Amino acid sequence: MTTAHPPKAKTVWQHLLKVPSKEVMVRLCDQAILYKGLASHNLPDSIVANWSSTLSVTKGETRQVITSLSSLLQRGVFLFSANPSAVSNAFPDDFHADLRELLSSIIAKRFSEWKVTLADSNRTLPMLIDVQCKVNSTSDSATLDALLPTKASCVLQLKIEGVGNTDKTELIDVELSREKVDTMLDGLSKIRDQLTSAMQR
Hints:
Blueprint: H1 7-14, H2 22-34, H3 45-55, H4 59-82, H5 97-120, E1 127-138, E2 151-161, E3 169-176, H6 178-199
Antiparallel strand pairs: 1-2, 2-3
Helix pairs in contact: 2-4, 2-5, 3-4, 4-5
């Protein structure tokens, strides 16, 4: 699970609460994906001025919003491609709940288009370089069988490289129930069969 962001980063996300509608948020997200990888000072002045007016923030703050949103969305696309239910792990723990839900729905809706955009660019999606797995077991202390596990889940620790179009690596924990593990394994099995079939052509 992603940890909380420092106060400065949290302030950047609060600016997104000023977006007047979902349609406007979708346009902002589209442009954040479009200008991925650009340093904040290289963003087009006309784009910055437009969003600065919409958000009622300074141009400097607008540049921070766009570049931070771009990194967040790219991480969300990466997680969604592996497991749609894990997209919420792209957000810090203290992220605004309604904003998290809105951005998650936008990522799901725009996933196919953004994935192509990211894959076709000179810069690639973050790369999975290692996976660690552990099983968490919890017990109900109120029962006579408190020493026996009553609930078990799988925690996958994903190590990814290329976060935010940089060489930086990041660890992301994803907790999965038994049912989610079965679904994921079934999906991975189908992907393996498709890859095998493609290589044999």
